[in-house]
Amino acid sequence: MTTRYWIGVASRDHVKAAESGGFCQFRHGRTAPIRRLSTGDGVVYYSPRERMGEGAYVRAFTAIGEIRSGTAYHAEQSACFDPWRRDVDYRSANDAPIAPLLGQLSFVRENPNWGLLMRQGFFEITQTDFDAIAKAMGKRPPSPAGGVE
């Protein structure tokens, strides 16, 4: 199976909660994005703001990891919210502001309205883009067998 690479968009506080819990969820816990993930896929989160819809602007990549083996599952977050999730092995990484990467990332170069793409909350990127983001976050590119080191 081919490794794929994904960007999820969420506020930094939500990303840090997912990172500390070792999971990912996208687009407010919808099932479709989670079901597209496979074991070994690379995931990076972009955070536009500190908190959902408010707080300081972050505009940076704030977490990076690899999908663990297993399947999608429901998590009861509250009585009326049970999002779909997958487990992730996150790597220690620095925040990487997007501004210095704008000329390097193909999804930005190919789409001058890349901010609208981010509003989708989840989309696939190339390995080259993933590697550039990983490097900016202080991580080495994935090994040939996949995975973020």
Tell me the name of the CATH homologous superfamily. ph1033 like domains
CATH topology: ph1033 like fold
Q: What's the CATH class, please?
A: Alpha Beta
Tell me the Rg in angstroms. Answer: 14 Å
N-to-C span: 20 Å
How many separate structural domains? 1
Describe the structure.
It is a single chain. The protein is of the alpha+beta class and 149 residues long. It has a single domain (5-136), classed as ph1033 like domains (ph1033 like fold, Roll). The chain is 24% helix and 32% strand. The chain contains 5 helices and 8 strands, in the order E-H-E-H-E-E-E-E-E-H-H-E-H. The radius of gyration is 14 Å and the shape is globular.
Secondary structure layout:
Blueprint: E1 5-9, H1 12-21, E2 23-24, H2 31-36, E3 42-51, E4 54-67, E5 73-74, E6 84-91, E7 96-97, H3 106-109, H4 114-119, E8 122-125, H5 127-136
Parallel strand pairs: 1-3
Antiparallel strand pairs: 1-8, 2-6, 3-4, 4-6, 4-7, 5-6
What brief labels describe this structure?
globular; ph1033 like fold; 8 strands; 8-stranded mixed sheet; 149 residues; alpha+beta; single chain
What's this model, at a glance?
The protein has a single domain (5-136), classed as Roll (ph1033 like fold), CATH 3.10.590.10. The chain has helices spanning 12-21, 31-36, 106-109, 114-119, 127-136; strands at residues 5-9, 23-24, 42-51, 54-67, 73-74, 84-91, 96-97, 122-125.
